[in-house]
Design a protein that fits this description.
The structure is a single chain. The chain has 255 residues and is of the alpha/beta class. Helices cover 38% and strands 23% of the residues. It is built from 8 helices and 13 strands. A hairpin with a 5-residue loop joins strand 1 (38-40) and strand 2 (46-48). The radius of gyration is 22 Å and the shape is globular. The termini are far apart.
Length: 255
């Protein structure tokens, strides 16, 4: 056989095999997504992780059998007061909210998640852990006004990195934290991929009234803007944690 033909046939066979393997992998992913992937963590918490074959956070929880960003959560646990009233903005699938409820003894948690598909998983994880009396989920993007937003960036490999932008024709509903008129907030966690100033602007009255401890993920030129915004309310950055997480406390409450 001509060497060139032999090489071509060899490549063709490998290509077909590769295509077949990819098709089999897609089938397996589809079955897993339909049947659901669950993982029981070391503390007994149970998480539904339907995207664990692709998504960074769900994959990490599945393979480590513990909470995502556990080091950050452990530090926050040492700062959050007992029976805290917590607001979790950017709750994703409930990783932080479930930890706050089970490990920090939170009295109440309002968990906000903008993406409908992720919100459904959040609801499942609240129910799986019997936390419906503590965690109240909201399918809403907190911002500085009531209106609409659209997805600016999304990746199936890291759903938590999804970012939003205000847009009148967007399909995602936005609202303000102040609009909820919560009676008190002890701890406010914000992880919204660049939308943090919008969230803070819509929470001015809540922050001024309750002076909650605030943990916020922020990066780039957003950090000095966040520091300036919170500084006007008497806040100072007290802890710089990994993964670009920062803790701010009102000066009178600094540890």
């Amino acid at each position: 056989m001509n060497p060139a033909v032999k090489l071509f046939n060899s490549v063709l066979k490998r290509t077909k095999l590769y295509k077949s393997l990819n098709e089999d992998l897609d089938t397996i992913k589809s079955i897993l997504a339909q049947q659901g992937i669950r993982q029981t963590l070391q503390d007994g918490s149970v998480f539904s992780l339907p995207n664990a074959t692709e998504d960074l956070i769900q994959k990490r929880i599945f393979f480590t059998k513990t909470y995502y960003e556990l080091n950050v959560l452990t530090t926050l646990q040492s700062l959050i007061p007992p029976q805290a009233r917590i607001v979790d903005v950017g709750a994703n699938i409930g990783n932080h909210s479930v930890f706050f409820a089970r490990q920090c003894g939170a009295a109440s948690i309002h968990a906000f998640e903008a993406l409908e598909s992720t919100f459904q998983i959040l609801q499942q994880n609240i129910a799986l852990n019997g936390l419906s009396d503590i965690i109240t989920p909201h399918n809403l993007a907190l911002s500085n006004a009531v209106g609409r937003a659209a997805v600016a960036h999304h990746s199936q490999h890291n759903i938590g990195s999804t970012s939003l932008e205000a847009r009148e024709q967007g399909t995602i509903e936005t609202g303000t934290l102040d609009g909820f008129n919560l009676p008190g907030i002890d701890f406010l966690k914000i992880d919204v991929e660049g939308f943090e100033l919008n969230v803070l602007e819509g929470a001015e009255r809540s922050i001024a009234r309750s002076k909650p401890l605030i943990a916020i993920e922020t990066f780039g030129d957003q950090l000095p803007r966040v520091e300036a915004f919170l500084g006007a309310f008497g806040y100072t950055c007290t802890h710089r944690l990994e993964s670009q997480n920062y803790v701010f406390a009102a000066d009178a409450d600094r540890p």
